[in-house]
Amino acid sequence: MSRKTLKALFHMGAKEYKTEYDNRYNDADTIHLSVNIGGNAAFICQTPEIYKQIISIERLDKAVDAVANTLPQLAISQFTSKCLIDEILLTNNIEGVHSTRKEIGEILQDLSTRDKRNRFVGLVAKYAALEDNQSMSFKTCQDIRKVYDDIFYEEIKATDPENLPDGEIFRRSGVEVQSATQKVIHKGLAPESKIIDTMNQSLAVLNNDDIDIFIRIAVFHYLFGYIHPFYDGNGRTSRFISSYLLSRQLNPLIGYRLSYTVKEDISKYYKAFDVCNDAHNKAELTPFVEMFLNIVEISLQQLLETLEEKKYKWEYYCQRVGSLPNAEKNDIAHLYELLIQAALFSNIGISREELLNELKLSENTLRSRLRMIPDNLLIENRQKGRKYYLLDLDEADILFDV
Questions:
Q1: Residue 313 lies in a domain
Q2: pLDDT by residue (tens digit) across 139-163?
Q3: Pair (324, 265) in one structural domain
Q4: What value, to the nearest 5°, has the Cα angle with vertex 288 and ends 176 and 51?
Q5: Residue 387: strand pairing partners
Q6: pLDDT tens-digit profile of 344-367?
Q7: In the chain, N or C: fewer CB atoms in 10 Å?
Q8: Contacts of range 147-151, beta carbons closer than 8 Å, 24 or more positions apart
């Protein structure tokens, strides 16, 4: 936070506190929102910190694009799937929902035939849609409900039907958000008419082109949590919406990094909600916007560093392919490069089908080429009856050092 919150300044004294609130609320650069938080009109101060964060985000995004554009498309696709799996694991983990990489990976591998009543199928399918660049609309309450239904409805109907939305669009009854120690830390809006009205106001903010898009995404993320429109799945739904919106503005990979960064500093994430929910903060959402933009900034920085590291290793190993057994044969050298790429960028390896497509070989010829890779170098994985391959880079390092 670039300066003390109004919540923190409350104990300065009534006069000083009121003066500071008036100065912030009435500043010429302040953004006023048509949404009330705890009876106060919400607003955002466009602080120097916010301006710096937006500039940094845009610069980092260009740097990410520059590195990504130098990598093979298959490597980016493999890395995208790996990040998608990690993102779903972490968005589940934040809510205390257990899942595994194998479980998510198997769903991702065969989305078209999976039963949507099974755990996480809707969530995986929705995140996978980011990679396909599918267009989604967030203009009405019905749009929000559709996203929720796509992700959770069939799963909740099969496992916990009492948590299904029971109102016209959202929930009918009240709901409380509790801490790990069962302490009530927030009460969602009620009745449903208030949920709908406030959600419509929030969507109007999200679609207001007069406000910078990154500020709008941050504000909507907060407002979704404040409204808490559903009995279950609010956090994962709001993080998905934010991921989608960010993926439309920045390198698409950012859509699979949000929960990773949130999880790294979960206390900061929850504290920003707590500060802005507090009545003494007088509905100033600046602290949340700065926190959220910092998360996006860190996500991009970490993404850039990860891609740069993988690119460096990719080039390092490819330059040394010639010293690997049987690499004097062109198609074997190419096979080695694909296996190295899989080891660096994928979650489980490169599939047999992908190898056939990339190498333009028959099934029998591919089988014979794989036999020319020493057993200690070739790692074979199986998932849902399919074979995946990658190079054991530790074993390759031993050969390079000889």
A1: no
A2: 999 999 999 999 999 989 988 999 9
A3: no
A4: 165
A5: 382
A6: 999 999 999 999 999 999 999 999
A7: C
A8: 147/237, 147/240, 147/241, 148/230, 148/233, 148/237, 150/122, 150/125, 150/126, 151/122, 151/123, 151/126, 151/233, 151/236, 151/237, 151/240
